[in-house]
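Appendix B, Record 12. Input sequence as logged:
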Amino acid sequence: MRINKYAFFILLMILAYGTSVPAQTIVRGKVSDAQSGEPLPFVTITSPGKTYGVTTDFDGQYNFQTSDTTTRLQFSCLGYKTEFRPVRNGDKQTVHVKLNRDVKTLGEVTIQDKKKKYKNRDNPAVDLIRRVIDHKDSNRKEQIDAYQYEKYEKVQFALSNISEKFKKKKYLQKFQFIFENLDTTKLPGKEILPMYLAETLSDVYYRKPNHQKEIIKGVKKVEFQDFIDNEGVSQFVQYLYNDIDIYDNNVVVLTNQFISPIADAGPTFYRYYILDTVLVDSTRCYKMAFYPRNKSDFQFMGTLYITYDTNYAVKKNELTISADINLNFVKDLRITQEFNECRPNTWLLTKDEISIDFGIAREGMGLFGQRALSFKNFVLNEPRPDEFYKGEDKVTDDSAKFRSDDYWDQMRHGELTRSEKGVITMIDSVQSIPAFKRFMNLMVLILAGYKDFGDFEIGPVNTFYSFNPIEGVRFRFGGRTTRKFNPRFNFETYVAYGINDEQWKYYVGTTYALGKKSYNEWPLHNLKVSYQQETKIPGQELQFVQEDNLLLSIKRGENNKLLYNKLFTLDYIREFPSHFSWDFSFNYLVQTPANYLNNHPEGVLFFNPVSYYENPATNVSSITTSEFGATLRYAPGEQFYQGKNFRTPMYNQNPIFQLRYFVGVKDFLHGEYDYHKVTVDIFKRFFVSPFGFTDVLAEGGIVFGTVPYPLLDIHRANQTFSLQLASYNLMNFLEFVSDRYVALNVDHFFNGFFFNKIPLFKKLKWREVVSGKMIYGTVTEANHPDHQPDLFKFPVMEDGTPLTYSLDKRPYVEVSAGVTNIFKIFRVDVIKRITYLDHPVVSEFGVRARFKVDF
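Logged structural output:
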């Protein structure tokens, strides 16, 4: 078993934070104008003789931290005399500084007087940035008809801020050789210990209007063969470190959207200051500082270098973020981009680097991650033939993973540091140490729920014990094969037993990869066969968790509407690099109600037709269906983590379309009904920076044919206390069915836009979310038991009160308001049910919670 999703990140964070805090020099304070007392932004604070430094924010505040020996700090700012202050090495302290003016004339440069109230009107810095905005389209690379270049990418992760005390830990005595790879060049003022390194070399080709192909010709990375899913790590890194286009209005960083400093509405959200004119690689540029008007909003601060000509192109940008924004686990973030003039008046990106120092707390050890891109060998306006761009957008050369060290020494854009060269050898050595293997096996068990025995693994452990009113206490035990057994073949099984119903349940399934990739590697090309004998709650659909999870055994209201299902499934799954996929399936299903649900009059009438009351001989003990199905899905640009149990999406701005069609065939393998089912759903995330983002799910379905209600659309209900995003959290199980319906779910995440402006909430770093869910449908006469006496009567209570309804009168609606990012891992919602409050055993209000980890 390999750790999934955030586990690589979490594991290294555990390694970092699970140790003591190093002895650091930490200096905080405020820098202000000695005459006016006004705070001074953009003051540079350094330790003389060292390269590491920080700058003050717009309120003049700074936070300087280093593990190097530091006894004096230097404070310098354009237009002010440089000051020095003594500090206590290895201690926390506060040092406020007042700088005296030393005004100088800088030729053609206008320095904004920081005492005056900032305004856009008659502001030369704003006039300049508006010229940059006006010239954005002409400076984008997309204005070129065709281009190609070579791209080199290097991604690395390292434990940061390594202390001497940490190195001497008793449990690290067998691992002392790893500290030979310490690096002080990546994070100035702090030592880092590289733990992961990946390199990719490729050729990229583009032609208007939107044709692009990337041919990967070299891949080299650290491999955690037995413990961490390397493909999953690559997907996750790509998701965290999106490509950054400064010319876009919005820039996505760590799954959050930031307003670009040269966005069309940039002057509304930023303050700009022309600092100087400088030479950057022999190009004369305006040097401009910028800062968000509201330092708690998701915006950048930093420096722009704008060409001193009529192109007004960005030659270089240096971006960082304020410590006041509500961004989790980030101690420091730096983005640097450089552009070169590849032909007259055409500027193209040649260097793109994003570095992030992650940490659970501001102080102490953390996790440093860096993605560095380099582009060279540009060829402009020489498009390839049409055939060249067809097929997959990204193609990996067969020999890409087998390039020699000599090849990389010759082809990579720049040399590796000594520590980078040693990381692969170091990781190989670490993985051979028994103590490391024991630790990693323990982490796999805690984070993924499986115990690895080589070819086979046991789990998930959180399903071994659960309970419900029908089965009583339920025990389950199972496992599955691993890639070590066979990368193209997977076998999974479990057995379960309920103490009350005294029945065995079990599952056996196998997946075989028809293509060249493994059975759980995207894009899938699999054949899957399974048989399951199990209980099922009609209408319950849980996201990314097992239904017999112990924590979900606790439910509100009556949880006695269970079925016993015998299900045989045959699936042919094919995914394509374009993110189009199909799933052709055959399902043979026998549904039998649990005893409690079928004993009239003590319990709920579940599977009895209306005619049962006149002729008990018409009692029905089960339903058998033979069903063929097809699911078509298109998710352009989709990002996700592929685990073994399920696929975890990592949503971006692209929509997701899904069409499902199922046909039931009567008399085929004892199938009892002819019917057709069609459902369509569309998901889209809308970014509305700086107000967060909105997730919208629109769905509709229709059933053709005459079938009993268990074969209609049983709407997704949730009686657990866990918040289920795709379900109706105050709807009871089996409360509503339809053969025609439309639904709309809307969730808006403000990302702390309002809370960040309230002192207490700002300190807690809570975030606000609001949601609304609506579903409207009907049961036509063809499928309504009031009009079809041979159909099953909708379930009723002992006194005859209905439990199951159609939605003919009005839509079902529920709304909620919630708080996310509680302790950085919880979301809690207060939910109000708006309609159908007269139904039995319903709640008008409810509180639901879920684990949710976000940046």
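The radius of gyration is 31 Å.
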